[in-house]
Amino acid sequence: MSDSDLKLDDGQDIFLSQVLDEIESMQEDDIVLSQALDLFENKESFDLSDSQFKNLVEDCTSADFFGSFTLKLPTGENCELLGVDTHCENRFGKITKTEDFDALIKDQKSGNTERSTKWATSVFEAWRSVRKLDGEEIPPLEECDINTHLSRFVVEARKQDGSPYPPGSLYNIACGLLRNLRSSGIYDKNFLDETNARYARFREVLDAQMKKLTKDGLGIGQREAKPVNEEDEKILWSKGVFGNSSSVALQHTMYFYNCKFFGLRALDEHRTLNCNQFAIGSDENGRYIEFKGTNSKTYNGGLKHRRIEPKIIRHYDENSGIVDFYEQYLNALGLSGPFYRRPLNKSEGHLRYGEQVVGINKLKTFMKDICSSAGLEGRYTNHSGKKTCATTLYQGGIPEEEIMKRTGHRSTTGVRKYQKPSPAMLKEISNTLNPPQTTIKAQCGTVNEKNAESVLKDTDESVDNKRSDPSFKGLFSGNHSFSGCTFQF
After folding, report:
1. Is the pTM here over 0.85, yes or no?
2. 458 falls in which pLDDT band (50, 70, 90)?
3. H helices of 134-266, where?
4. Pairwise CA distance, residues 78 & 86, whole Å
5. From 44-48, 191-195, 361-365, 407-411, the region with the lowest mean pLDDT
6. What is the fold, at CATH topology level, of the domain defined by 230-424?
7. Of 30, 73, 227, 407, whose CB has the highest number of CB atoms within 10 Å?
8. Which whole-number Å values give the CA distances from 345 to 248, 342, 349, 353, in the listed order?
C-alpha cells in the first residue's frame, strides 16, 4: 500500500485495520494509537514517513497467520505530547490476583440468591445423607447423573415435616442446584436449558412432578403480602406512625414512600440507599423529589443489562407536602451518607440521626412494624411496599408501561403479580358477569313484598282450619313422647 492509497476525499471512510496494516512495520519513534488517529483525521493524507507516526506498534515476528501487534503505553515524552500527567504509572489500579477476582464476583452477587443457593444445596445434601443411611451411596452433585439421581431427588424431596414441597419451591431448588454447579466452575450441565437434549429426561420428570403437586392442591392459594390501601394510609398518618413527630416516625415515612413512589424492592434496594441518590427541585410542573437508582435485581449494570437504562424517577408533589418531609429528612442526615441511620432523640426540637447504619435485621421488619403500630390487620412484609406502588397505579388506571417504569419490572408477567384489584373492582366484575336479575328470581321463585302478605295469609288460614280438627287439638294437649319419627314442615 502506498501513501497515495491512504489519501481521502471528503466523506470517504477508512477502516482502522487499513491504517494498522501499513504502520505495523515501522520501528522508530513511538506514538500512541489515539494520537495517530487524531492527527490522521485532520490531515489531507496519511504520511507514513512523518516521524510522528513511526513505530505506533511493535511487530511481533512470532505471530500467527493474521499477525499481531502490541500497543506501546504512553510514557515520558508521549505523555507530555498528549497533555496528560507525566506520571502515567499512577493511572491504573493496583495489581490484582485470582483471589481478587473471586472476591469481586462474590461481592456483586445478591444476598438472597446466595441464601437460596445454600438452601437448595442443603436439601440435596440432606437427601444424600438419608439415602446413605438406607445403604445407598449417592454421588456428590458435581458427579451425580442428572437424569438418574437428580430426577429421583425432585420426586423424593420433602420438607423437614415430611410434606412435599410446592411446585414453585421444587423448581427453585433445581435453580439453586444449577447455580451451585456454576459456582463450582461447571458450566456444561445446564439441565434447565430447554435446548439441551442431553437432560431432556430430567426436565420431563421435573415437569411431571410439578404438575402432580399442583393437581394435589399444593402451591395454590399461597399467602401473599398485603398492599397498603388508601384507608390504611390515612390511619397511619392519623395515628402518628407517619409524620415528623419523631425521628422514627419520619424514617418510617421515608421508607414507605420510597416503596410507593419509586417501587423499591423489599430489602435489597433499601439496604444500599444513599442520600446522593435523592435530589429536591422544581420546574414548570412544581416541586419534586428525584430518585436515581443504582443496582437492583432488574438492573445491575452487568453484561446482560448493558442496554437497560437505570431507574430515574421524578415524583411531583402538588399539595400533599411530602417533598418537605424528604427535605427535612435529608437535612437531618447532612445530605450525605447512608439513607437509613439509627434514629436519635430530639435535640432542641430538631430531629437527629446517628452515624450507625440501621441493621439488616431491623430493616427487614420496617413494614411489619409500621403496620402493626397502627393496628392494621393482615400479612404485611417488605414486599407490601412495592405491591402498594403497583396496585395503587393499577387501580388508578395508569398504563402498564408506566407502572413498569416505577416498579422496575422488565416483563408484564412480573409486574402483574404485584397488581391487585380493589374490592370495588371485584364487585364490578362480578356484577358484569351475573345473570339478569329478573330471570334468576323467576326461576328460584323469589317472593316479592306484594305477594309475601298473600303467602302469610294463606298460611294463617291453613293453621286456623287445622285447629278445628280433633286430632290436631289432641296433638298439643297432655304429654306425648315421640320415637323414630320424622317431622316435615
Report:
1. no
2. low
3. 151-156, 167-183, 200-215, 230-238, 247-262
4. 9
5. 44-48
6. hpI Integrase; Chain A (1.10.443)
7. 227
8. 9, 10, 9, 8
